[in-house]
Structure formats: structure tokens, C-alpha cells
Amino acid sequence: MIMDPDVRAYYERGGELTRLREGRGRLEFHRTRDVLRRTLPPAPARVLDVGGGAGVHAEWLAADGYAVEVIDPVSLHVKEAAALPGVSARLGDARDLPVPGGQADAVLLLGPLYHLPERADRVRALAEARRATRPGGTVAAAFISRYAALHDSVYHGTFTQESARAADYRSVDTGTIISPVETGFRGYLHTPEEIPGEFADAGLPEPRRYGVEGVFWLYGDVNAWLDDDGRRELLLDAARRVECEPSLLGASGHLLAVTRV
């Protein structure tokens, strides 16, 4: 399978090594972990972390007692993930997983669907996750919200630039995101409503959809909440209370969809 060379270059420069460990990206990390801890089968289940990057989620999964294997198309990520205690890693593509069918208790797609602009490729990746998962196992997939680029642009102040506004409006209209050439981040942004159809076409039951960050990632003082242990737990509890509210799903920066095979 061919990976977009600009996307590959972005990740090979280390674009994802610290994103979920610093700043407000920590909210996405904490909330994704929170949802997965409530929805995955209990340890020591076998988890395939497909597109798992440098192992930011594989690390805590292994610490929780799971048998974790990262499958990722980027050599830098595989090297970093394989160095983590209790984690194995190898190269592979979400659309053609190098594993036998029905061998995993859970398959995570916490990034691959961002970078597959063609619907057929996304459905293929979901179908591969289904194939690799045992009956009764769990498939969880992450999505970037259709409105995330526009919201993020306003948050950071780049929306005042005409080129940024044009890109943001295009992402809302088409789902396609192309960040400035120096970053190389290209992807597809989902509406909450289109996710169940892609699961269905992959032969998966309708998933439960979660707003990962909710609206809280847009708060100017979100880092202050994340820096304080007590306030962080209050913030996570607030997000948990409204995580499946349909009217708020699209406001979240990321969405998580979870189903049983």
C-alpha cells in the first residue's frame, strides 16, 4: 500500500512524538484513554494498535497489563514503540494488516482514518480491523471532526489570514484538510453522521460515538486545568457526562467510535 509521501514526511520528522504529551493535546490523550479503559475487554487481552505511532497509547495499555502490538507504516514510529516496555511493533498498513484473522481481542485505529481521503480506503481499513478481531472483540476508531480545522484556526488566531480561512472553509465543505506545505499534514475530517455508514459498509455493527474533547479543547485556560491534577479530573468528569450527546459531537476536535464484532 502507498502512503501519501507528504504525510510520511510529516511523521518521519517527528510530528507526532510529543503532540499528545504536551499542551492541550493532553486532553485528547486523557479522554481517549478514559473511553478505552471503559470499553476495551479486560487485560490481559491482546490489542493491535494500528497506526499507533510512537506508542503513546500502547505504553499505558501495556502498563495496564494488555498484550500490545503496534502496527504502523512509519519506521521512526516502529522504532520508538518497540523500545517501550511490554510493547512489540512492526511495519504495516491499516488497509492490509499483516496478521491472521480473529487473533486480536481488540483493534484500535487511532489515526489511520485521518489520512485516508478516499472512503473506499477507510472502509477497507475498518474491514481489516474487523477481520483481525475475534468474535465478541472490540474495534475502536478515531476520527477528526469536520469542524476541527476551522475551530482550531480561530483558537490560534490564524483565521485572520485569507489563505487559512479558505482552507478552513474547504475543510468544512469537503472534509479535506491540507495544512501548510511545511507541515505536510493532509487528511479527511468526518461529520458524526457519516461514521456509522462506514462501519456498516465494513461489516461492523453500529458504533457508539464519543466526543473526545467535547468543547473543552476550545477553552483558553484548558492547559491550566490539565496542569492541576484535581482540576484535570473535574474536567475529565465534565467531558464524560456529555461525551455521547448528539448535539455536541461535532464540536469536539476528535471523535471515537467503538463497537463489538
TrEMBL record:
Pfam family, one: Methyltransf_11
InterPro entries to which the protein is assigned, alphabetical: Methyltransf_11 (IPR013216), SAM-dependent_MTases_sf (IPR029063)
Coiled coil, from the record: none
Domain Methyltransferase type: 48-140
Keywords noted in UniProt: Methyltransferase, S-adenosyl-L-methionine, Transferase
Single Gene Ontology BP annotation: methylation
Any one GO MF annotation of this record: S-adenosylmethionine-dependent methyltransferase activity
Name listed for the protein in its UniProt record: Class I SAM-dependent methyltransferase
Organism this protein belongs to: Nonomuraea longispora
